[in-house]
Amino acid sequence: MYWIIGIVLAISLLATGIRLAPKGQPAVGLEDGRLVPCPGTPNCVCSEYPSTASYIRPFEYHDNPQSAWQRVRDAVVTSGGTIQQEEANYLWAIFTTRWLHFVDDVELRLDVDTHMIHVRSASRVGRSDFGVNRKRVEKLRLFFNREPIDKHEPDR
Fold this sequence. Notes:
Elements: H1 2-20, E1 30-31, E2 34-35, E3 44-46, E4 59-60, H2 65-78, E5 82-86, E6 90-96, E7 103-111, E8 116-123, H3 132-145
Antiparallel strand pairs: 1-2, 3-8, 4-8, 5-6, 6-7, 7-8
């Protein structure tokens, strides 16, 4: 019985320590007009550098850039992101995990010439994220590609 209490106490202390630990500084922004490359750890994905292991496809759009940008912005907010900075062709948001409050940075860059929105999602601390950033980008892609519901169209 005492060992169960000890394990619960140890896990609680560990979780509290992780929650109170510094969350790291974000490596965000643009370098030479592109998103910052991933550091080579498996807790980051980026669409700007196709020849790396961290590569993930950018979001492609076929409508006007403003509509696509609004859709990707809505996808970030709908998915639980908090926008930290937004400019005409750049957006930085943070996602915080519920249990341990790890902070991940998501950045988007609108490329009007190629009809793409480049994306970077990275953990601030640690080495592995068990695929969380890659899954997050794919979830954003689902929201981004979802057809808008026209409220004027009758139900069938």
